[in-house]
Specification:
The protein is elongated. Helix 15 (about 370-375) links the parallel strand 13 and strand 14. It is an alpha/beta fold. The longest helix has 26 residues, at about 20-45. It is built from 18 helices and 14 strands.
């Protein structure tokens, strides 16, 4: 009896698949979700990693009344959310009549979204599981007119609901790694159906555009928009901490273990290059008392930004004030970007690159991998695997003037090549907001 039931079930699936691959996808994912969720939950709890946002992802949340003019942005995690920052702010400024909803897929992404957009967004929550009842609940409560998904997250059920509800669906800042591309290419027929539901697909590069078209993206609706992360603004504020006549190295957003590395290297270089100075910027100010012994160990003179100390009589200045790092990059010759010799995943190198200052980072850069890929194609940025490699590269920047000057020019070139993405998305929104109708019932 059970065997006959299984055979009948499989026959039904085959018949359904002939008419609707998407329906089959929704059916199978729902079945697997219900089957595997208890086991997944137990494993996560056992490992000390709880299911953050699971109620919201299931559609069990209360949303404020948002009306019938809603623009929704989705960034799965930290890197994507940060890339959306300037665009979301600009959207609020240009389209004040629209409510802004921001969704993420991870706990860290949610934390960053709430930190960045609590005063801008009208609602911040998690993106739903790509299962029919979860997506239906989410869309019914949020009721977006326009959805913009950062990078390339292709959710079949969500895209189907958007199409059925006449919701404008965009992929923005789209990119596709080689590994993902080879996986998706084998399922080209399926992803062609999914990608056909998108209003437009806007990619970071011509390479990304061609990859997406080759797996089924509609050619007449797939365009290059460049990279949102490069829409970084320079500070107009003048900075004077006695840097004239010296070459300044910034160690920005350093974490535990990295201060020791950079101070040891700086001491070694300072014995050869007496004109160099170090601006040390720990990511967390409460770590400063732990850093001081390392500075003293190397017999380096040091001072504090908060006390008005300068490089005129100090080897090292500790930036112990909040919100000043980005403008400080304007005075450096080059920068080491921290959070990369531990598991943090790196920090944004573009705050330095925008001033045409080369950057160096350690190997763990998953939060900004796409940015470092672009920078490291030239000498604008360098990813090193070890402290020894970091020392060797710093030596090259200090000793080879032609190499250093070219690295600065490469920074300027990569910015010129990549900027403009924000305006492209805003112009796209301008074309559709006035014609966007309330969603279908």
């Amino acid at each position: 009896m059970i065997t006959y039931a299984i055979i009948i079930f499989l026959v039904i699936l085959v018949i359904i698949s002939m008419f609707s691959e998407l329906f089959l996808y929704g059916l199978v994912t729902t079945f697997l979700f219900i089957l595997l969720l208890p086991f997944y939950y137990i494993v996560r709890v056992f490992n000390g990693k709880f299911l953050y946002g699971w109620r919201e992802k299931l559609g069990f949340f209360k949303a404020p009344h948002l009306g019938d003019k809603v623009i929704m942005y989705h960034g799965v995690s930290v890197g994507e959310v940060m890339a959306l920052e300037n665009l979301i702010k600009k959207t609020k400024e240009i389209f004040p009549q629209y409510k802004i909803v921001v969704t993420t897929g991870t706990k860290t992404g949610q934390e960053i979204a709430k930190k960045k957009f609590s005063e801008i967004a009208d609602f911040i929550t998690y993106f739903p599981f790509d299962i029919p009842f979860c997506v239906a609940s989410f869309i019914g409560k949020v009721n977006p007119n326009i959805v913009l998904i950062a990078e390339t997250e292709l959710w079949p059920v969500f895209s189907f609901f958007c199409k059925a509800k006449n919701i404008k669906l965009y992929c923005i800042n789209g990119r596709m790694s080689d590994s993902t591309y080879h996986l998706y290419k084998g399922l080209k027929h399926f992803f062609k159906m999914v990608l056909s539901k998108y209003t437009k697909i806007l990619t970071q590069s011509e390479i990304d555009k061609n990859k997406l078209i080759s797996i089924g993206a509609p050619e007449d609706r797939t365009f290059v928009m460049k990279n949102l992360k490069f829409d970084v603004k320079k500070s107009n504020e003048n900075v004077d901490i006695g840097q004239d006549g010296f070459r300044v190295i910034i160690a920005g957003s350093t974490h535990k273990g990295e201060d020791e590395i950079i101070l040891k290297i700086f001491k070694e270089k300072h014995e050869t290059y007496s004109d160099i100075k170090l601006l040390l910027v720990p990511r967390h100010m409460n770590r400063i008392p732990q850093i001081i012994p390392f500075i003293k160990h190397h017999n380096l003179s040091y001072g504090y930004r908060s006390k008005g100390d300068t490089f005129k009589d100090k080897d090292v200045i500790i930036l112990d004030t909040m919100g000043e790092l980005s403008k400080m990059y304007s005075i450096c010759n080059f920068a080491f970007i921290g959070g990369s010799f531990n598991k943090t995943g790196g920090h944004n190198p573009l705050e330095a690159t925008v001033y045409s200052k080369p950057t160096i980072t350690g190997p763990n850069i998953h939060n900004f991998r796409d940015i470092y890929w672009l920078l490291s194609r030239s000498n604008a940025g360098k990813v090193v695997k070890t402290p020894k490699a970091l020392s060797i590269y710093i030596e090259k920047l200090l000793s080879n003037k032609d190499f250093y000057n070219q690295a600065c020019k490469d920074c300027e070139a990569v910015f010129k090549e990549q900027q403009g993405a924000l305006d492209i998305v805003i112009d796209e929104l301008k074309m559709i907001v006035d014609t966007t109708r309330p969603n279908a019932a």
